[in-house]
Specification:
By secondary structure, the protein is an alpha+beta fold. The protein has one domain (2-65). 15% of the residues lie in helices and 35% in strands.
């Protein structure tokens, strides 16, 4: 996926908790395929709720700081009408 000038990879993790899933391990396994270094990646985990139930989205990027995804004003986006 692309946000602004940055490319991110997204992975869905189903479930109410991350029990049994280790996002750092998942990222490391992916990086080993790409021959990168885990310390050069951003990892963001966000809770989601969809028609299929609760879960998480794991976002990773070698070029984007995770802080750029945060709402620095702490203001939630209005619900669509």
């Amino acid at each position: 996926m692309r946000i602004g000038a940055y490319n991110l990879e997204a992975r869905e993790i189903a479930g109410k908790t991350l029990d049994g899933e280790n996002p750092f391990k998942l990222l490391n396994e992916h990086i080993l395929e790409e021959h990168g270094v885990i310390g050069e990646y951003t990892l963001v985990i966000a809770g989601t709720q969809s028609a299929s139930g609760p879960g998480f989205i794991m976002l990773t990027s070698p070029s984007m700081a995770g802080e750029l995804l945060l709402d620095s004003t702490c203001a939630a986006a209005p619900a669509p009408s």
